[in-house]
Design goal:
Length: 395
């Protein structure tokens, strides 16, 4: 029997579930399928607070089967080849699936191997990462038992999902060290491959003030290249001079390099960097008009977040639906993304911006300031909006 669907979605994560749910709401008779091998889905934004001891990691997890919208067929398989000329996706398990429209959103991959010595050391020797569900609770183990010395937080030389997450956990740790009475005998270092603390000037100004006020040492254009777990030594390359420097640490929070999934990199639908090559506004493929992409895997030049997907999904859904009805795609995504910059256990700077790093704020207050209300929004409001709104196709 031929496997054919009007709409095939690769990846049933934040983006894939949002798009499939919204499409089903628009037209319940649409024939939609999702291909995704995952058993579980994670609300990854919670991991910042899990690493800081606020939530148990189980609270970020749901069965993938509970999220697949009613009436959508699920291939619990791994896409591994896309043949856009044939309108065909092949899975690793050997299934051929044909489509009329394809939505590509398999997220990105974590390249742990790109930092020498990291694979095999993560989760021990004082090396933690909120980017790994498996090890996110080790972050809190290290923070809560920290007895002084040097704590390093890194940001890699690659695009990352949630550009603020590498530093959010640092502010939480710094506050925890103060509460635990060990701050005076501690050094907190931010070693970032970026050129500045944040890409949007308005929020960067606030973060620079916080760093100064709280005695955090921030160093830029420093890329973690090597880690020696047993001896607790981390080597950074200066991206301007190429000089290497090795620092000792008691704990280090590492953010791995990230890139497009390998099967995408070798497909004909990506740009030179490996991301699915779409128009930044309509999110339609630049060459194949029956392909759309959104989320972390797309080439849309914005910060890769779930918040961005909340605004991308309606554009993809509307444009795809227009095409199904024989009309041209017209709905435009403006690059909106958001980064709830947690700066402590009761404070948060709610960064919201669009293409070209122009602030695009929702609330009638100065969002460049640290606010308790925004922290509570992150802690309780956003997870509820995610599970009951986005994942159900309601927003
Ligand atoms: C620590 C951390 C903190 C974050 N904080 C925030 C925040 O505060 N705010 C915010 O908005 N965002 C935040 N994010 C980012 C946000 O979680 C991601 O941007 C978002 O989940 C991306 O959605 P996606 O659908 O593109 O990918 P994902 O949700 O990762 O889903 C990708 C799906 O594709 C599937 N897949 C992969 N390969 C294949 C394949 N070959 N075939 C089929 N399926 C495949 C996977 O199994 C997965 O289900 C954070 C992320 C992390 C890790």
């Amino acid at each position: 029997m031929l496997n054919f669907h009007q709409v095939l979605v690769i990846g049933g994560g934040t983006a894939g579930i949002s798009v499939a749910s919204q499409l089903k709401k628009l037209s319940s008779s649409l024939d939609i399928a999702i291909v995704d091998p995952a058993e579980k889905h994670y609300y990854q934004p919670l991991w910042t607070l899990v690493g800081a001891g606020v939530f148990d990691k189980k609270e970020s997890e749901r069965d993938e089967s509970s999220l697949i919208p009613k009436g959508v067929e699920w291939y619990q398989e791994q896409a591994f080849e896309i043949q856009p000329e044939e309108n065909l996706v092949k899975t690793k398990e050997g299934t051929n699936i044909y489509y009329k429209y394809l939505v590509v959103c398999p997220g990105l991959q974590l390249d742990w191997h790109k930092i020498e010595g990291l694979e095999g050391s993560i989760g021990k020797y004082g090396i933690c990462s909120n980017y790994s569900y498996e090890h996110v609770d080790y972050t809190w183990e290290l923070i809560s038992s920290f007895a002084g010395g040097r704590a390093i937080f890194t940001h890699p030389n690659s695009p990352v999902k949630c550009g603020g997450a590498p530093q959010k956990i640092m502010y939480l740790a710094e506050e925890a060290f103060r509460k635990q009475g060990v701050r005076e005998q501690s050094e907190v270092f931010f070693q970032s491959a970026n050129a500045s603390i944040f890409s949007v000037d308005k929020y960067a100004a606030t973060l620079n003030d916080i760093i100064k006020k709280r005695g955090i040492q921030a160093d830029f254009k420093k890329d973690l290249i090597k880690i020696d777990g047993p001896n607790r030594r981390a080597t950074f390359k200066d991206l301007e001079t190429n000089e290497e420097e090795t620092l000792n640490y008691e704990m280090i929070h590492v953010v791995p390099h990230m890139s497009a999934p390998d099967f995408l990199k070798s497909s004909p639908i990506v740009n030179d960097a490996g991301w699915v090559d779409v128009d930044p506004y309509t999110l339609q493929h630049n060459q194949y008009e029956n392909i759309f992409s959104l989320g972390d895997a797309s080439s849309a030049p914005t910060s890769k977040t779930g918040a961005a997907i909340r605004k991308q999904a309606p554009a993809v859904v509307s444009n795809l639906y227009s095409m199904l009805k024989g009309r041209q795609p017209w709905k435009k995504y403006n690059g909106y993304t958001s980064c709830p910059l947690v700066t402590g256990y009761n404070s948060l700077v709610m960064a919201e911006f669009k293409y070209n790093n122009v602030p695009s704020e929702t609330f009638p207050v100065d969002q460049g300031k640290e606010r308790k209300s925004m922290y509570w929004l992150k802690k309780y409001g956003l997870p509820a909006m995610y599970w009951h709104g986005m994942m159900k196709g309601r927003m």
